[in-house]
Amino acid sequence: MKSIPEKNLKNKTVKLLREVAPKPLERLPMRPFEVAWNDIENSLRITMPHFKSMKEAMIWTRRIQSS
Known about the structure:
The chain is mainly α. It has four helices and no strands. The protein has a domain at 1-25.
């Protein structure tokens, strides 16, 4: 595995990606927005929320960020 200084990583990202994957990256097939959005809404409907309220989620998020 090759180590790369941070400055080189920032300045030479495209070149480094070509070294790792010389072929152009294939594009992922895109679904229409309406279809994708419906899937997201259905997933949200059938899953249980991790927190009981928005306030509880915000308290948890702020506690994690301040650590």
